[in-house]
Amino acid sequence: SVIESDKTRDFSPDEIKTGGILVQDNLIERACQLTTDCAALKFWGQPPHSHVFRDVLVTGNTLRDNLAWSYVAEQRSRAARGWWIGGTGCGLQGRAGFGLYLDFVSGVHAYRNVAYNNPYAGFMLVGAWRDGDIIFYNNVVANSLYGIRPTSPEYDTHGGCVNTRIVNNIIATSEGYGIYQCTACAAGEHFGNTIIDHNLYFNTGWRPYEDGGVWQPGAMAVRTPGGQHYYPTVAEIRGHPYGWELQGREGDPHFAHYDPDDRDPTSSASPDFRLTPGSSLVAGQGAELPPSLSALLTEFGVEDPRWGEAWDIGRYEGGFGLTVEPPVHRVDSGGTASYGVLVESVGEFASAVTLEAESHDPCLAVDLDRSRVTENSWLNLTVTDAGCPVGELYHVDLTAHGGGFTRTAAIGLILGGSQVYLPLILRGAP
Questions:
Q1: Cα separation of 122 and 145, whole Å?
Q2: How far apart are the C-alpha atoms of 225 and 208, rounded to whole Å?
Q3: pLDDT in tens, 16-28
Q4: Cα–Cα dist 409/324, whole Å
Q5: Do 141 and 173 contact (CB within 8 A), yes or no?
Q6: CA nearest 196: which of 181, 185, 218?
């Protein structure tokens, strides 16, 4: 990035010249195989004037199978237990591959990405990532030694982060720790402005220390100048002085297709991280998106529907959306009302959605122009009066089934009556 400022941090947006970057809906796989310390997607910088980006959104990408092996790194790891390795039984010798790698870089929003089968870490943050926004929301990180790896405290210059948020993510099948991080300041444990919450940990720390795993594997470990702190469970993370994971949880997300025992990064497995009706630990359990992320989604025109009252955790929203326009109609006696019905994101979650419409009163005739939907589309629902008493509000229930999910909508019909128009009175200056 290019920064035009005499400052070393706290840059204003107009001082950050490199920005407006969208990396969306890419599959990046096997991108670096015969070299270490690299990733499917990497941003690189150098403090103090080329490490903070502005308005960067990385979303909808799949970053997988980036082994990043070298013979020299493997031999060094075997001989000296080098940096790119876990416990003594770890099979990832000399493999230093990542999904998303921010190397002395900040100012990046990563949202709804999948990173799996990247041996060392799904997401890697090194050095000066604390000097700008780091927003990691609603990602899935799976099958790595460490899920998310923020590191290198010695480069911190101001005792904390500008704005770091790791929220609404699913971290699965990390051999060592789900999140393994260093302090934000070499002089002590300072994690100011760091939020870690609403994440789901599944099968983290699967290799116990007795079988050659890292020491006290599990959900999180934190390295400080005074020593290591281990949090094998989410309940123990909550004891951290900054109150992390107060809404975090651990358990099976019940993905559509995922084998937690398939941990070989060379197997080229193709898991399906979409949600199912059994995904109760993640459905509706997410936090609201931060304003900066919502603004970027709007700026780049990224469609991001939500089906329930709250966001789901992870890459996908479970199920599909069901919308009726308008929700209430009025017709005269013997008339017909027409409603538009929108079924959204069917293709991602089900081969087809089946719809049924049922009236509470036999004097209404209900008709759907289609009863099955296989892609995002509108269909038409008509309701005809066949002799109902006028002056009443009638109801029709619309039910949609697909992929194990069910959505319902209530449709209203006012029969007869009259419409009242109230005058609009504008009072000007005397």
A1: 9
A2: 25
A3: 999 999 999 999 9
A4: 7
A5: no
A6: 181
